[in-house]
Amino acid sequence: MNPVLAEVERNGVVESVHRGTVLVLDPDGKPLRELGDPYAPFLPRSSAKPMQALAMLRAGLSVPAADLALISASHSGEAEHVRRVLALLDTFGFAEEDLKCPVGPHDGRKATMNCSGKHAGMLATCAVNGWDPARYLEPEHPLQRAIAATITELTGEPIALSAVDGCGAPLFGYSPAGLCSAFRQLVDTEVAAAMRANPFLVAGTGREDTVLLEEVDGLLLKGGAEGVHAFALADGTAAVFKIDDGAARARPTVLLALLEELGITLSERARGIVEPVYGGGAEVGAIRPGPELANLKERDHGAHPRGR
Q1: Is residue 118 part of a domain?
Q2: How far is residue 175 from each of residues 131, 144, 151, 181, measured CA to CA in Å?
Q3: Which domain holds residue 224?
Q4: Which Pfam family name is an example for this entry (predicted)?
């Protein structure tokens, strides 16, 4: 059984716990911390998007940094997100109906769906290469083969699992250790620079990825569904975790605990990404790190970028 990464406390009572897996690698790729089994294959969900975006660049896509951030995003469907998705599609001769992602949850439009930027980038990459855009989600399509090749290279692992992501795109599985290794390499890429330069486009107002990209110099991070998150610091230190029960509410607590372990000083704004526990409209508890994270020993990891 994996260790408890986060506890939900209500009026002094531990009401629920969230177990999971953690891996932290130092700048040389050596493990600093392992909890659970980070070497078993899993599904990385949207944490894979920076790798998918890099694969598109390698396939010849050339777009402004803001569009590259949007292609790497799990955005909130806010007005600027939608405007940029539609503009990106138009630049390459496509319309909203050409997207093959599901519609957004509130207005029935594909452009508001949180993966629409990635799908627009996939269509744009097809246009650049003369690939059939109607089939871009098929696993054997040249685009998806190019993405699989980049993922295999960056993770250093063969693809162990194949599934369909929530947006309909192929989803390739490998270990958290492979994803952690990939983020170490991604931190110095054009994709990472674009995400750091455009944090709002990566997620949205108040979202943890946006807030932490704004607050921590040199950081690259990307969350995914079902309790997955990956990040890398400017020096190549990287971490990945997976919450076993998929609870999104546990992610901010674990993120902040790992960043603080690595010497990052977090602002009150950054700490605000952790939602309190409420009772009757009043704050009555908190989601706090589990024992394995709360009792971390001090380590000297060298110089890291500090929160602004």
Answers
A1: no
A2: 30, 19, 12, 10
A3: 4-48+139-294
A4: Asparaginase_II
CB 50 within 8 A of CB 72: yes
* Distance separating alpha carbons of residues 175 and 40, to the nearest angstrom: 5
Residue with tokens 């399509």: 141
The domain tally of the chain equals 1
In the block, tokens 């799908």 appear at 119
Say if 114 falls within a structural domain.
no
**Alpha carbon distance 14, 203 (integer Å):** 31
Distance CA 151, CA 182 (A): 8
Residue 293's pLDDT band, with cuts at 50, 70 and 90, is confident
Task: Spell out the residues 6+ positions from residue 188 whose beta carbon is closer than 8 angstroms to its own.
Answer: none
- Tell me the CA distances in angstroms from 15 to 3, 244, 249, 258, one per residue in order: 16, 17, 14, 23
In tens, the pLDDT along 223-263 reads 999 999 999 999 999 999 999 999 999 999 999 999 999 99
Domain membership flag for residue 56: no
| 41 in any annotated domain | yes
Contact criterion met (CB below 8 Å) for 3 and 35: yes
* Inter-residue contact 238 to 58 (CB < 8 Å): no
Angle between helices 142-155 and 176-186 (to 10 degrees): 90
Characterize 6-38 residue by residue with b for buried, 16 or more Cβ atoms within 10 angstroms of its Cβ, and e for exposed.
bbbeeeeeeeebbbbbbbbbbbeeeebbebbeb
- pTM to 2 decimal places: 0.94
Coarse DSSP helix, strand, coil percentages of the chain, rounded to the nearest 5 percent: 40, 20, 40
What's the CATH number where 210 sits?
Answer: 3.40.710
